[in-house]
DNA sequence: TCTGGCGTTGTTCCC
DNA sequence: GGGGAACAACGCCAG
């Protein structure tokens, strides 16, 4: 057992040293008490096998590696604990004589449940815990309180709640940790940052398009914020879902892992916008950030936000089950080239444009396949680098017209939608290479190509590329009727619940 | 209690 | 090819 007691900062979704108040609190506490600072991250090897896809795992490990490098600049380092937080941390509380623990506030039930257990253990062991809101711009619980505990159900309503809230300045850690607060190097044994090959075979992975880490995050942020005019003119609906290079910032994976502070992003946007005419929420870049806050607020306020049943904001829809269709969708072989290209980009690169998410989410749920949004959310959880509990559930509910958005008759066409921004089908040609020689006239609808054209393009529909698993023109109309019926049933149920007095 | 305005990002047809 | 209207199938919220 160590003689000198310890202060822990438990990193979770705040894999950075900039604007990390909880980390600064831990450092200051260690200095004042003359304790050792232990910066820890807990990684559960089992979760990796089930929920986190290989690309996201790689991103996470790169972020941890970079975090360790940045901590070393502060005369500290990162301990990576293998196992479950609720089992491993209590052991370390004893081993390291922990007196003080800091961490960030999270709303993902997985973290919330962990917190309950850890806080109980900490209380028994007389460990003081400090939690800081630093994964959202606003404290979502105080936003809910401001709305009398009700969940804001529209974006505009949410904006009206936060418009007069003063956002605090970012904080920096300017002083290095004193040598006497630095834990001995030998303590690190067994807690080193994992190399990729500890968890996966790197050779099986695609080249890394978006490397993880705080350093990369800040580089990316500054690159975009330097383009003041671009920032001020940004309007999301005018960006392209199917450009070969992303038409938006791709800061999302860095934000979801906390490599980038949302508060820093907020202030940088304010700075870029100040003194210039600029676009406004919901379509502006600031508007994008506010969408995130909106979903976080809803996710914190609603029970079972990531499920249909027992979720107060979610319309109950009798989705069907079709594992073959689900699999075809997830693997990018629905027979609709635009849908398949998007799903293959997602699987390969871990990121797709927001409107591309609209396209495939609508297709899976109310548009074509009539499969529950919960199934789609699970696939996204696996594949997305920027997976985020509340955003994922919120957006899936939006697209399936289960909550927040109700115009279910607006269905994305898997043929027409992509053409608006990519007539030639370059995006399809890249991600569905078996169709790359198809003439432009048939690139979105290869089944319409005469056999001779299919032969000369080197790919027969039904052999080299799948036949359509559904007929969109027919099925989307049937699904609209089902949506109408589900809405009617929901309305009747509500009327029974709240009878006229 | 009722009503009209409005909501980040639809499609298709027609001029 | 760009813009506007028809299509017909919405719920939330402020007044």
- The CATH class of the largest domain turns out to be Mainly Alpha
The number of domains: 3
- Walk across the major sheet and give the strand order: 3-2-1-4-5
Tell me what the CATH architecture of the largest domain is: Orthogonal Bundle
3D shape? globular
Helix and strand composition category = alpha/beta
CATH topology of the largest domain: DNA Cyclobutane Dipyrimidine Photolyase, subunit A, domain 3
Secondary-structure element string: EHEHHEHEHEHHHHHHHHHHHHHHHH
Topology of this protein?
Blueprint: E1 6-11, H1 21-33, E2 36-43, H2 45-50, H3 54-73, E3 78-82, H4 85-95, E4 98-104, H5 109-124, E5 128-132, H6 140-146, H7 155-162, H8 214-225, H9 228-233, H10 252-256, H11 262-273, H12 285-301, H13 323-330, H14 337-349, H15 354-367, H16 373-383, H17 389-399, H18 416-419, H19 426-431, H20 451-456, H21 472-497
Parallel strand pairs: 1-2, 1-4, 2-3, 4-5
The structure holds a DNA duplex (15 and 15 nucleotides).
Question: What is the structure about, briefly put?
Answer:
With 501 residues, this protein is of the alpha/beta class.
Key attributes of the depicted protein:
about 500 residues, Rossmann fold, Serine Threonine Protein Phosphatase 5, Tetratricopeptide repeat, 3 domains, five-stranded parallel β-sheet, DNA-binding
């Amino acid at each position: 057992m160590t003689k000198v007691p310890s202060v822990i900062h438990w990193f979770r979704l705040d894999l950075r040293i900039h604007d990390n108040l909880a980390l600064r609190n831990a450092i200051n506490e260690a200095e004042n008490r003359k304790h050792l600072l232990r910066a820890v991250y807990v990684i559960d090897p089992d979760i990796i096998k089930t929920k986190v896809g290989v690309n996201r795992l790689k991103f996470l490990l790169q972020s941890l590696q970079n975090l360790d490098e940045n901590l070393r600049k502060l005369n500290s380092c990162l301990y990576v604990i293998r196992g479950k937080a609720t089992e491993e941390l209590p052991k370390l509380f004893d081993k390291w004589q922990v007196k003080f623990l800091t961490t960030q506030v999270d709303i993902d039930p997985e973290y919330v449940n962990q917190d309950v257990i850890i806080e109980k253990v900490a209380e028994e062991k007389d460990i003081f815990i400090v939690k800081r809101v630093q994964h959202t711009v606003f404290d979502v619980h105080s936003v809910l309180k401001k709305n009398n505990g009700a969940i804001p159900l529209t974006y505009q309503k949410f904006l009206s709640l936060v418009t007069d809230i003063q956002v605090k300045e970012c904080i920096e850690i300017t002083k290095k940790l004193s040598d006497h607060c630095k834990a001995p190097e030998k303590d690190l044994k067994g807690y080193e940052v994992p190399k990729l090959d500890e968890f996966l075979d790197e050779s099986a992975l695609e080249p890394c398009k978006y490397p993880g880490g705080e350093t990369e995050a800040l580089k990316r942020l500054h690159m975009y914020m330097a383009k003041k005019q671009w920032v001020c003119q940004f309007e999301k609906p005018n960006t392209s879902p199917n450009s070969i290079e992303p038409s938006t910032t791709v800061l999302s994976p860095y934000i979801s892992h906390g490599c980038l502070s949302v508060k820093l992003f907020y202030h940088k946007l304010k700075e870029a916008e100040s003194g210039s005419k600029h676009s406004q929420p919901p379509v502006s870049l600031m508007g994008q950030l506010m969408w995130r806050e909106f979903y976080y607020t809803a996710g914190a306020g609603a029970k079972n936000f990531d499920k249909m049943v027992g979720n107060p904001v979610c319309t109950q829809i009798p989705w069907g089950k079709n594992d073959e269709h689900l699999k075809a969708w997830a693997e990018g072989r629905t027979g609709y080239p635009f849908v398949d290209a998007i799903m293959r980009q997602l699987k390969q690169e871990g990121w797709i444009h927001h409107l591309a998410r609209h396209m495939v989410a609508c297709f899976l749920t109310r548009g074509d396949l009539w499969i529950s949004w919960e199934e789609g959310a699970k696939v996204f959880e696996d594949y997305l680098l920027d997976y985020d509990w509340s955003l994922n559930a919120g957006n899936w509910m939006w697209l399936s017209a289960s909550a927040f958005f109700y115009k279910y008759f607006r269905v994305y066409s898997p043929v027409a939608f992509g053409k608006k921004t990519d007539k030639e089908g370059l995006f399809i040609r890249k991600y569905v290479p078996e169709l790359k020689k198809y003439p432009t006239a048939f690139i979105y609808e290869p089944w319409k190509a005469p056999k001779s054209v299919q032969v000369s393009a080197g790919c027969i529909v039904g052999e080299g590329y799948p036949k359509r698993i559904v007929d969109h023109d027919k099925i989307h109309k049937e699904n609209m009727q089902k949506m109408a019926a589900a809405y009617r049933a929901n309305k009747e149920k509500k009327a029974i619940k709240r009878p006229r007095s």
